[in-house]
Design goal:
17 strands, globular
């Protein structure tokens, strides 16, 4: 979602923590419950450098917002990051981050980040991290897997920048693997896999990124979504780059490709403001952390 700065503003590499023996394994497990009018963070367990400082309620008691903090501020080769979230019946959780995640150059080991979520009937989950910057030479794998039960709702947005163009860096070597899956009651709703290599044709071909370093996807899922949302979504246009919206049987998918993470974030925020009311029953309220 919206970023305070475009990809590449910070120009230094992370201090090396390799070889793999020096890697960091981190995991964070969250569980949300509905207690009367409140959505509460009922369980929080973590190991390693991945934490939630506190549950926030900027929209009132019905929405529990958690800012996921990775204190090292960057992921290097060999790191393993696991975040799991369970949203029980009737609860509403919103997960975001204080800034863009950075995947640094690897000495040879692959880094991995996995987000797994389960949302029970009547629950809602918003997964809105502030983007990913993949440095040249990174060897990285990102997996998002969401399981929905019954009429559960989900909105998720992921924005990726390959290389730091503002620092004069292109993604000429390295590998980015990305997997994004959503299932409802065991049946697939959305499944996408990508393998992007610095020397691969997909970075420059018209069938791939066509030379654009930034791409992103927003997926909104809810049973019975109305087609009446589509005209408002299709008139949206990013200030830079290209955007598109697709209607699937149980989902709406918005995509961005271009040069700017800020443009991608603003485009997805506009789409989010349209899909959030029918999915979550609330108007879109911009998280304060996006402005800090």
């Amino acid at each position: 979602m919206p970023l305070a700065a475009d990809a590449g503003v910070e120009g230094s590499h992370a201090p090396a923590r390799q070889p793999e023996a020096a890697r960091w394994d981190a995991c964070l497990a969250l569980r949300f419950e509905r207690v009367g009018p409140r959505s509460v963070l009922a369980q929080r367990e973590h190991r390693g450098p991945l934490v939630v400082q506190k549950a926030l309620y900027p929209e009132g008691p019905g929405v529990c917002q958690c800012v996921i903090v990775h204190p090292p501020a960057g992921i290097v080769g060999g790191d393993r990051i696991l975040l799991t979230a369970t949203v029980n019946a009737g609860a509403h959780a919103q997960l975001t981050t204080p800034g863009a995640a950075r995947w640094y150059r690897s000495a040879g080991s692959q880094a991995e980040q996995t987000f797994r979520a389960q949302v029970e009937a009547g629950g809602s989950l918003e997964w809105l991290p502030q983007g990913t910057i993949v440095h040249e030479g990174a060897l990285a794998r990102s997996t998002t897997h969401v399981e929905l039960v019954g009429d559960a709702g989900f909105i998720g947005a992921e924005i990726t920048a390959l290389g730091r163009r503002a620092a004069g860096e292109q993604f000429r070597c390295g590998e980015w693997r990305q997997r994004f899956e959503i299932v409802r009651d065991g049946a697939p709703i959305w499944s996408e896999r990508a393998v992007l290599r610095g020397d691969g044709a997909l970075l420059t071909s018209a069938a791939g990124l066509n030379g654009a370093p930034v791409f992103g996807t927003l997926v909104a899922v809810k049973s019975g979504l109305s087609d009446a949302l589509m005209p408002a979504l299709r008139v949206l246009a990013p200030v830079q780059g290209a955007g598109s919206v697709t209607r699937l049987p149980d989902a709406i998918v918005a995509r961005y490709v271009g040069e700017s993470m800020e443009a991608a974030g603003a485009y997805f925020m506009a789409a989010w403001s349209i899909v959030r009311p029918p999915i979550c029953g609330l108007a879109a309220v911009r998280p304060r952390i996006w402005s800090t």
